[in-house]
Design brief:
Blueprint lengths: L1 H6 L14 H10 L5 H14 L1 H8 L7 H16 L5 H14 L16 E2 L3 E2 L6 H18 L2 H16 L3 E5 L2 E4 L10 H18 L2 H16 L22 H18 L6 H14 L1 E2 L3 E2 L9 E2 H18 L3 H15 E2 L3 E2 L2 E2 L5 E2 L4 H17 L10
Antiparallel strand pairs: 1-2, 3-4, 5-6, 7-10, 8-9, 10-11
Helix pairs in contact: 2-3, 5-6, 5-7, 5-15, 7-8, 7-9, 8-9, 9-10, 9-11, 11-12, 11-13, 13-14, 13-15
Length: 390
């Protein structure tokens, strides 16, 4: 994979590079709330699905670099460094310098978004700060700090935390519960983003021994844990009118991974063991086919998505690290993913459909960077062996 990353200069096409074109954004904006609008939107989604190659050629779309992808790759390099590949520290540090140069302008503190326009009820402009991307940057700089112990890396992580505290919009902030919005310009309440931020604040609070950060983490946790369903699941998105949304594989995985991280850092001070175990039970019993194939949602297997596979590997390896009994599941899913998604050129395919059609497009932001990070995480935990041990 590393050779493929470097050969392509850490660039690829993206899931959103066509849908972010003005024509497709206008279709969603115009038809989003109309009676039969979903049919118009769906027909255009099918155009993107089946004619992506022609559309990219028509729009002269070029491959891009993504800070989210590079951060995951850098985190993977740090894990390789810790397993004995010493030259990967320099590669990681070069990426971190690049990441800092790509932060979103116009804000006092460090934050990041995605380099494309995106529709979510309204058009979200490119580079609008996102909780997902910015919290992942926070985790990345904490990873770097834990390797180098350079105070400057910890200060960068604190700067990111101050962005959340002082500049990120809050979609819920009452009593002792808090939910950061998905971006700085919406009011979305999504648990996976909230919990990504919670695990970042927990790590930062433990590493700095600063109560302010731990207090923020607790409020974020309190919001999402209070919204856990009785069966242990979480809805991806909370509608303001109380309607249920989907329960899917990788968003649930993000939540469980975030809880695993917090359990690892807080140890006996971790307050959500009951919710954690209920969530694991639901995840294991409802979001996999034959205990191996990551389902798209709790009631739908196909399409099998590379991010579901990558996050499942990460989730199970993180759970294993927290309570030591899920490593075999991570290995089984890794083997399934390699068998069904891996291309000998060094990348992973996007999706496998019910008809056995395979979308073989490599998307570095969506799939390959996640898979690289997942595999390097398993190497660090010694769930699989590196080349020097074969």
């Amino acid at each position: 994979m590393i050779q493929w990353f470097e050969k392509n200069h850490y660039k690829s096409y993206d899931l959103c590079d066509i849908s972010s074109q003005k024509y497709f954004l206008n279709i969603k904006y115009k038809w989003n709330k109309k009676k039969y609008g979903k049919y118009v939107i769906h027909s255009h989604d099918l155009l993107i699905k089946y004619f992506s190659h022609l559309l990219r050629k028509s729009y002269k779309i070029e491959k891009k670099s993504y800070v989210q992808a590079r951060a995951l790759i850098a985190r993977g390099y740090l894990k390789l460094y810790k397993t004995g590949y010493k030259d990967y520290l320099n590669r990681a540090e070069e990426i971190f310098d690049w990441i800092l140069s790509k932060r979103t302008s116009g804000f006092k503190y460090y934050c990041w978004g995605q380099p494309y326009d995106w529709f979510s009820g309204k058009v979200i402009p490119a580079h609008t700060p996102r909780t997902t991307v910015t919290s992942q940057m926070g985790h990345a700089f904490l990873d770097l700090y834990e390797v180098t112990r350079q105070e400057s890396q910890l200060e960068t992580a604190k700067n990111i935390a101050f962005f959340f505290i002082h500049e990120m919009k809050r979609s819920y902030d009452k009593k002792d519960k808090l939910c950061f919005s998905y971006t700085t310009i919406d009011n979305h309440k999504t648990h996976n983003t909230n919990m990504m931020a919670a695990s970042f604040f927990t790590r930062l609070g433990v590493l700095t021994n600063e109560k302010e950060f731990l207090d923020v983490a607790e409020k974020l946790n309190a919001f999402s844990m209070d919204e856990q369903n009785n069966d242990g699941s979480w809805f991806y998105y909370l509608y303001d009118d109380g309607r249920p949304s989907k329960i899917d594989n990788y968003h649930t995985g993000y939540i469980l991974e975030s809880l695993s991280i917090q359990k690892r850092y807080l140890k006996e001070d971790f307050n959500y063991q009951k919710e954690f175990e209920k969530g694991i039970k639901y995840y294991v019993e409802n979001l996999f086919e034959d205990n191996i194939i990551p389902k798209l949602t709790n009631n739908k297997i196909y399409p099998i998505d590379i991010q579901s596979c990558a996050q499942a590997i990460l989730t199970y390896s993180s759970i294993h690290e927290a309570i030591e009994r899920y490593g075999d599941r991570a290995i089984a899913i890794l083997n399934f993913t390699i068998e069904n998604f891996y291309d000998h050129q060094g990348y992973f395919y996007y999706r496998v459909y019910r008809s056995n059609k395979v979308d073989k497009t490599p998307y570095i932001r969506w799939g390959d960077s996640w898979m690289f990070y997942a595999i390097s995480n398993m190497l660090e935990q010694k769930l699989i062996r590196n080349d020097s041990e074969d």
